[in-house]
Amino acid sequence: VVAFFQPKRLAGQKVLVTAGPTFEAIDPVRGITNHSSGKMGFAIARAAREAGAEVTLVAGPVALPTPRGVRRINVVSAQNMYDAVIPLAQEATIFIATAAVADWRPASASQEKVKKDGSGTAPTLAFAENPDILATVAQSERAHSGALYCVGFAAESHDLLVHATAKRARKGVPLLVGNIGPATFGQDDNALLLVDAQGHSELPRASKRVLAQQLIEQIAVRHPDGAK
Ligand code: CTP
Ligand code: CA
Predict the structure, then answer these.
(1) Which domain does 146 fall in, by range?
(2) Any idea what the CATH number is for the domain that residue 44 is in?
(3) At what angle do helices 208-222 and 39-50 cross, to 10 degrees?
(4) How many structural domains does the chain have?
(5) Among 27, 65, 72, 144, which is 20 to 30 Å from 94 by CA?
(6) Ligand 1 pocket check: which of 40, 86, 153, 159 to mutate, most ligand atoms within 8 Å of Cβ?
(7) pLDDT tens digits in sequence order for the chain, 228 residues long
(8) Where is the DNA/pantothenate metabolism flavoprotein C-terminal domain (predicted)?
(9) CA distances from 91 to 26, 54, 164, 182 (A)
């Protein structure tokens, strides 16, 4: 059973949240993105703020309103998100990576719109891998020393517990949160699987608003100076 939401639980903490999809340009008029709505990340930013934290939200392209009292930085590509997050992670005490970051980008975006050449053959795209924002932050000095607590999310289509457990180890984060299917993109409710060093537990299906509050409470409990 999850403890109820305690207001001001994160007073004095600096929380950094990534949210939404990224958009990877192909040319000036086209790009590749994904179905992330940003709703869960925005709800988490709001709940962290309501818990008394100073909150910075680095958001990919979504049309959601900025939660009250939250500093929002808009980005487009995974590289933009990385460039925004790395310096902010130097000051944060909690990093929550909810963004659906594109794993790959077109290797070289065309400066001009790609035109049909009339031959009926389609162009091919070459891809380059994007930097892993969460893994980079989780491997930082501050994360290792316990000054920065990192939380990852996992989007999986199957075998959630197995993949989430492996992902937690691979990313080197103390807490990895999985979305329990079916696909939750754009929905207003969700259910979460929490995987940490002790094992796993579930936050049962509820609105993203309530789940965000419960998750913030769970992060506060696990955070080094949160066991109040
Ligand atoms: N993440 C990130 N930067 C990336 C890719 C992922 O910060 N370039 C973060 C996500 O925000 C999420 C976590 O890493 O918190 C896991 O993302 P996910 O896509 O599930 O994992 P990947 O490591 O990219 O593995 P795969 O997509 O192959 O399952
Ligand atoms: Ca991925």
Answers:
(1) 14-101+127-158+171-222
(2) 3.40.50.10300
(3) 60
(4) 1
(5) 65
(6) 153
(7) 555 555 599 999 999 999 999 999 999 999 999 999 999 999 999 999 999 999 999 999 999 999 999 999 999 999 999 999 999 999 999 999 999 999 999 999 999 999 999 999 999 999 999 999 999 999 999 999 999 999 999 988 889 999 999 999 999 999 999 999 776 678 888 999 999 999 999 999 999 999 999 999 999 999 887 554
(8) 10-220
(9) 34, 11, 27, 36
Query: Residue 158: is it exposed, middle or buried by C-beta count within 10 angstroms (0-12/13-18/19+)?
Result: exposed
Kindly state if the Cβ of 196 falls inside 6 Å of ligand 1.
no
Per the domain annotation, does 112 fall within a domain? no
Atom of ligand 1 nearest to the CA of 163: 29
134 within ligand 1 shell (Cβ under 6 A): yes
**Which residue, by CA, sits nearest to atom 21 of ligand 1?**
154
- State the amino acid at position 203 in one-letter form: L
Q: Is the CB of 160 under 6 A from ligand 1?
A: no
ipTM above 0.90, yes or no: yes
Q: Which atom of ligand 1 is nearest to the CA of 103?
A: 8
